[in-house]
Request: fold
Amino acid sequence: MLGPVILAASRSDRMRRLISAAPVTKQVVDRFIPGETVADVVPIVEELTAGGLELTMDVVGEDITTPEQAAAARDAYLTLIDRLAELELGERVEMSVKLSMFGQALEAGHELALANVRPVVEAAAAIGTTVTLDAEDHTTLDSMFAIHEELRKDFPQTGCVIQAYLFRTEADARRLAASGSRVRLVKGAYKEPAEVAYQQKHEIDKAYVRILRTLMEGEGYPMIGSHDPRLISIGQELARKAGRKLDEYEFQMLYGIRSDEHLRLAAEGHRMRVYTAYGTDWYGYFMRRLAEKPANLRFFARSMLTRG
Reply:
């Protein structure tokens, strides 16, 4: 399987330098990451929202090694929120954040990440939107969930992400569904050991369905993060059986992947949110997108051969 190999490459400085230096890389990266600055992505935001879609915005970058870099990441999100306020798009666009960007892995990182993310959550609430805490590798999750619980005391709309491939996730889903929180369910995009995660696609898919049923039957707001047509169909059926209205759950897909499906679901009356990343430190995000789906890797390889 190529996925684990690609995920290993996502943490390799040598591969980062090699791929980043390839002349064709930026042309391919633009499929998944439409810009480096807020100004770059504003036209995309306006186009997608005008087409009936909603967005969640991610300022990419995970290699934070100093408190100053963590503060800069916080400020980048605050700048984004200011721009969304000017565009009056607070109700259509939320934020997704990785706590690693806010200093989670540094000394006293849990407290630092909480201190940095809180003003982002506060500013988002002030313009009528919210923040979802992205899940990263399994060693970070206890901290992420604790920060999520703390933020929800003042901002109950704060969301979080759970990953179907982790053994722990079914228990996490039951707890979160009972608490009525907003939960995005994804398959998972990090290289995890067999001791903590399913390794086979069919096992992950079955876990995804079990967890999604728990979320649909619970008290929270499920967010179905998948491009898989079968899982999308199952999600619709589980929502129907749970008696959920179309505005009581949503679908989420990545910018640049199955864009026609985004529009189809929105046209049917579903809430469809496009996960849209931007920024200069795109490497880790980009490599996980390649690892998630063989078609993404084929697209990249074909582009390298034909444009290189």
Summary: Residues 107 and 149 are 21 Å apart (CA to CA).
